[in-house]
């Protein structure tokens, strides 16, 4: 019999989500029995798949292979029907699983937000950095992961000590969130992991690091660069900001991305943001109709940004600038402040 616990679950939209990665129907039913007290919806995914957004992630240790992507934004709960090192054995360990689920719900889950540009030249990295900075200014512990390259130069971090992606080999994991936070360069209270001339993120390391950081900070922002996007990286996100402009090519690119992501049960929540282009105006309603999403924010065209960046002025330094104010509003709109 599983002990009942005092206190309610962490809920999104009135529902607690528990994701289990397994093809073992008996194991899945045992997990369902344990989490039934919370009234949780159980999302079942086959072995080898990336994690969907959920409050708790449970993984079948006996079905896990070395090359599988990490499971969950923080530390997942390993279970099995047979003894496996580090796993809770069910059904005998049902109370241990209940305790682990209760702890995961009491701690809560970080938000992981990706920023994906419809094309180059829209300021995707600037937007991602501003989003992270504004959330940090609002009191949310934040990490920014550079998956596109170039953020070290954008934020003037190229000479700052601390690990880059190339310093984190796949064989070096699993990575510990607290140790990463302590070691990473800091920009305006945001912990930043960037690429450098040696290369970018190995997908296996990306998954491990994103999950480890999400266990210790309240927001992880991923700079995903320009479309066509990396759907594997997008799968790590709870929310995906799709940055477009009124230009036809940009709207078409976002429409293609939406077609691949929209409506997937395990996909991120999609948020359309439009970057204004000087001398080009497309009514907001037409952009929404073409992309199939409501516009969450309009970012103004910013004169002199290129000159500012060349002079070492980083995103958000001009706190009264229209772009900074617009992204600050987006942070509130997304519930990150």
From TrEMBL:
List the protein's name.
Answer: Septum formation initiator
Organism in which the protein naturally occurs? Miniimonas arenae
Give the source's domain of life in one word.
Bacteria
GO function term, MF aspect, one: ATP hydrolysis activity
Per the record, the GO terms for biological process are: negative regulation of cell division
Q: What are the GO cellular component annotations?
A: cytoplasmic side of plasma membrane; cytosol
Which parts of this chain are annotated as the region Disordered? 48-69
Residue ranges, compositional bias (Basic and acidic residues): 56-66
């Amino acid at each position: 019999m599983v002990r009942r616990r005092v206190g309610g679950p962490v809920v999104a939209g009135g529902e607690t989500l528990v994701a289990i990665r397994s093809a073992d129907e008996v194991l899945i039913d045992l997990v369902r029995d344990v989490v039934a007290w919370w009234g949780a919806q159980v999302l079942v995914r086959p072995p080898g798949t990336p994690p969907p957004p959920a409050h708790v992630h449970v993984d079948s240790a006996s079905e896990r292979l070395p090359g599988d992507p990490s499971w969950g934004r923080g530390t997942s709960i390993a279970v099995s029907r047979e003894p496996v090192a580090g796993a809770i054995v069910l059904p005998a360990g049902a109370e241990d699983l209940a305790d682990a689920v209760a702890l995961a719900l009491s701690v809560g889950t970080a938000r992981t937000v990706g920023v994906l540009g419809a094309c180059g030249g829209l300021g995707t990295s600037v937007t991602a950095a501003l989003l992270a900075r504004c959330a940090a200014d609002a009191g949310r512990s934040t990490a920014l992961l550079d998956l596109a390259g170039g953020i070290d130069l954008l934020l003037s971090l190229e000479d700052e000590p601390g690990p880059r992606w190339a310093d984190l080999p796949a064989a070096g994991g699993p990575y510990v969130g607290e140790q990463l936070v302590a070691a990473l360069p800091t920009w305006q209270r945001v912990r930043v992991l960037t690429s450098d001339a040696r290369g970018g993120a190995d997908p296996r390391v990306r998954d491990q690091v994103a999950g480890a950081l999400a266990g210790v900070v309240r927001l992880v922002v991923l700079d995903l660069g320009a479309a066509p996007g990396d759907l594997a990286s997008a799968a790590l996100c709870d929310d995906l900001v799709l940055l477009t402009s009124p230009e036809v090519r940009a709207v078409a690119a976002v429409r293609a991305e939406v077609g691949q992501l929209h409506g997937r049960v395990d996909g991120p929540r999609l948020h359309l943001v439009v970057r204004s282009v000087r001398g080009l105006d497309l009514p907001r309603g037409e952009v929404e109709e073409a992309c199939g999403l409501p516009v969450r924010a309009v970012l103004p065209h910013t004169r002199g940004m290129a000159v500012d960046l060349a002079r070492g002025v980083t995103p958000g330094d001009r706190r009264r600038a229209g772009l900074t104010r617009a992204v600050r509003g987006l942070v509130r709109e997304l519930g990150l402040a």
